[in-house]
Amino acid sequence: MSSEAFHVAIILTPFLVLPVAGWLGRRDARALLLALIPAALTGYFIYTFWVVGTRGPFTATMPWAPGLDLSLSFHLDGLSALFATLITAVGTLIVVYAAKYLEGHPHAGRFQVSLFAFMGAMLGLVLSDNVIAVFVFWELTGFTSYLLIGFDHDR
Question: Which end of the chain, N or C, is more open, meaning fewer C-beta atoms within 10 Å of its C-beta?
Fold first, then answer.
């Protein structure tokens, strides 16, 4: 795996762990383990913030739709690394809080999936380097925030 593909995979981690989030989110005692994922991402983005400060901004690119000559590219500079750090740090706190708050809730796994999808959409939104990806992540942010806001619609 190339260095750029590695960075792209790290940035897309919230989407890659959605099945795990749904499975662990349903188990009361293990739901706290989910907090390790955004906590590790927070550490990665703190490191990235340091790298950008010492070596300068960089872009990680991976083919998205080669037939259309589209690539999925993420640009990391000081501001985007700061926002990515904030997104993952606050996401870590929310995962910890929700694990305890939703203990015993029958749909806690669904909430964790929506939360990780929202976190991934926000990361994609602040790090995207092309307008099409910004649009996709913007729409995904809107959809996942709708799922989070309407989560416990019965109450």
Answer: C
Q: How deeply is 150 buried, as exposed, middle or buried, from its count of CB atoms within 10 A (0-12, 13-18, 19+)? A: exposed
Separation between Cα atoms, residue 62 and residue 106, nearest integer Å: 38
d(CA 44, CA 10): 9
Structure tokens at 22: 């749904």
Q: How confident is the model at residue 107, as a pLDDT? A: 81
pLDDT score at 123? 96
Identify the helix (H) or strand (E) that includes residue 74.
Answer: strand 70-76
Q: Quote the CA–CA distance of 111 and 41 in Å, as a whole number.
A: 20
Distance separating alpha carbons of residues 85 and 148, to the nearest angstrom: 21
Instruction: Identify any residues that bridge with 116 across adjacent strands, giving them in sequence order.
Output: none
Report d(CA 15, CA 33) in Å as an integer: 17
Q: Is-contact 57 77, C-beta < 8 A? A: yes
57 phi/psi in degrees, rounded to 5: -65, 155
Rounded distance between C-alpha atoms, residue 110 and residue 112, angstroms: 5
User: Could you read off the pLDDT of 73-94 as tens digits, one per residue?
Assistant: 999 999 999 999 999 999 999 9
